Amino acid sequence: MHNSLDLTVCLLNWKRPENLDKIIDNLYGKVKIFLWDNSGSFKKKDKRVDWHVRSSVNKFFSPRWWMLKFAQTNFVCTHDDDFNLENVYVLQEAIDALNNDKEKKAAGFCGRILRGKPCEFTKTKAFNYYKPDDELKEDKKVVDFIAGRLILTHTNSIRNIELSNLSKINDGKDYHDDLDICAKLAKKRLRRFIIFKKIADSVIELPDQYAAWKTPDFFENAQKQLNNYWYDIDM
User: Fold this and answer.
1) 226 exposed, middle or buried (CB, 10 Å; 0-12, 13-18, 19+)?
2) pTM of the prediction?
């Protein structure tokens, strides 16, 4: 029998309530659960959710970071609504790693190594990219950026981050809040994050018909965000 993790997970909802219900059921009893509902239509009361905010406006991704500032656990984590974890307790490995290495600021399962100056975000030049269907040969890898699908970090680190600069690019649609958060967590220093094979192997993909990356100019806007937050790092 596992104990609950010292972790608060913040979920987002817009148009995938069927996914969200499965994810909450999977997380329930193992972590604290926060939910920012951009649709304003998810269940009004759900005993599985510790804190639920129903928004009358779709505010995209940034509110999750604001919510996580209020967590009472020592660690917090984002969790997109297009995947589930076969084993939630694999996240303990990430918690242990961050406890044991103060130079590492966050952990996850999708990461990138930035190369070049200015940095490039193209698929062929800018990064090594871990995703669940890769054949991963290493148990873990140190990277420069973690995708927002799952970013696990110290609660105090999020509390100390200024959120006012989010959403300034892409007409206020903060599709790339993860780039901003990672730049702030790392203080624009390289190799401050870890991605884990064990977490990637536990990912079960769910329907993603409304995924942000499918929107027009997603990668072009990602490059703009990258230049905005990482333009002056020392490569």
Assistant:
1) buried
2) 0.83
